[in-house]
Amino acid sequence: MKDRFALTPAQKALRINLNLDIYGTFAEIGAGQETVRHFFRAGGASGTIAKAMSAYDKDFSDAIYGKEPDGRYVTEDRLHKMLDHEYSLILQRLDNTNHPDRCFFAFANTVATINFSKSFKGHGWMGIRFQSRSNREPNDVVFHIRMRENDAKLQQETIGEMGVNLIYGVFHYLHNPKELLLSLYDNLSPDRIEIDMINFSGPDFQNVDNRLMSLQLIRNGMTDAVIFGPDGKNILPAALLYKKNILAMRGSFRPVTKVNMDMLQKGYTLFVKEKKVEKENVVVLFEITLNNLRSEGDIDEQDFLDRAEILCSLGQTVLISTYQEYFRLVEYFSRYTKMRTGLIMGMANLKEVFNEKYYRDLTGGTLEAMGVLFSNDLKMYIYPSQSSKNEPLENLKNLRIHPRLKPLFEYLTFNHRLKDITTYDPEVLHIFSRTTLQQIRKGQSGWEDCLPPYVDTIIKEKKLFGYRPPEETAVVISDEEDSGSIE
């Protein structure tokens, strides 16, 4: 994250306290009343705090907010119930007769800090419901945090500072969500606390695409991986992946082609036939790495949204990560599950897996990476490649591997950790995303046949990936010719 000038928590709390148009309640569970403490200490707290509470006892908490079906207290549902309850109370008990411009808010968090044995680092939920103008429908900002510090007291202080940043941010950076997101880390760093999921909602955030906010979390170094679903909403990784059989496929998906879908369908068929895989327990992920998004320089947000639009329209769940090496991706999955996982990849990606240059910074080199990669009950499903119809098919049987790694490759193949996808569709092997993308941008014909059903219609209707109708392309080419430009 870039360095930025930031007020201290005390300065932010004082500014809020001195603004008589901001008034609300604080409900904090699990890490002390660390956020409201800043407002009490700053002075002028009566101008901001209507109520501060902490229902630590589970019976008291259940009596106030209701019981959770799963019996847990540090959940997104719990946070929303806290916000619902506290915000409705302030509306019931207070009015704006004496303060017609007053904007109400309800701040809440529910947190589990590090345990005594330090085997569990801690995590929590934090959010705020607030009005941007008096008597206006409220907005919500809700996010999940993972603690990284090894001391409970430090974690509590960090949570308190981030809570102050959130309250200050929604009232000062409302119309700049990216700046609001950055401000959450004022006087903090991702080394202390991680945000791995965030959602904006409400009338003032109608134009905010939460998928793009997920991308900002990655870009700013606030987390290493984010997930969003077919509806475009961000998903907590732990909630989706916990004890699941994960099947992931990495690609550029620029755009999704028939090859991608054939890879997925055939790889999925093999995966669900595995003895340690339950079909109902499988989570399928389309993964895009940050390096892939930066393949043409800095990240093009519109290009990212174009890819997301197509994948979501196909009903897919998308993972964006910083994990260039596959073993780091598998290590990430192991945070949440010990169940069998699978990776679907083409021959080009498999060659990269066995490329030693990616592991030179590891003490154990390639063997260390492979140990991490295959120690978590992983299987790889390899899709063949064929550069042209006249060229031979490339698969596991004829893949060229460096002699030093040949024994390892043969061991993994013999033990079925690497499996050829033999039921591929030979008619789609010649389709390449890069060629299809060029055809779309140049207004050429024939690219529609390379895509799954209806994807071409979506691209044309929404003009994704720089698509222009043939007549517009012809005009552009004509203008270029007239100006003497040479392509």
Structure description:
This protein is α/β, with parallel strands linked by helices and 487 residues long. It folds into 2 domains: 9-208, Maf protein; 240-428, 3-Layer(aba) Sandwich (Rossmann fold), CATH 3.40.50. Helix content is 38%, strand content 18%. The chain is built from 18 helices and 14 strands. The chain has helices spanning 9-18, 34-42, 58-65, 76-93, 152-172, 177-183, 210-219, 237-241, 258-272, 290-293, 301-313, 326-333, 347-353, 365-374, 406-414, 433-442, 455-462, 470-482, and strands spanning 22-29, 49-53, 103-112, 123-130, 139-147, 193-201, 225-228, 234-235, 245-250, 282-289, 318-321, 341-346, 378-383, 418-420. Strand 13, helix 15 and strand 14 form a beta-alpha-beta unit. The longest helix is centred in the first third of the chain and has 21 residues, at 152-172. The radius of gyration is 26 Å and the shape is globular. It starts with 8 loop residues before the first helix and ends in a 5-residue tail after the last helix. Mean pLDDT is 91; it is low at 476-487.
Secondary-structure map:
Layout lengths: L8 H10 L3 E8 L4 H9 L6 E5 L4 H8 L10 H18 L9 E10 L10 E8 L8 E9 L4 H21 L4 H7 L9 E9 L8 H10 L5 E4 L5 E2 L1 H5 L3 E6 L7 H15 L9 E8 H4 L7 H13 L4 E4 L4 H8 L7 E6 H7 L11 H10 L3 E6 L22 H9 L3 E3 L12 H10 L12 H8 L7 H13 L5
Parallel strand pairs: 1-2, 1-3, 9-10, 9-12, 10-11, 12-13, 13-14
Antiparallel strand pairs: 3-4, 4-5, 5-6, 7-8, 7-11
Helix pairs in contact: 1-2, 1-5, 2-5, 5-6, 12-14
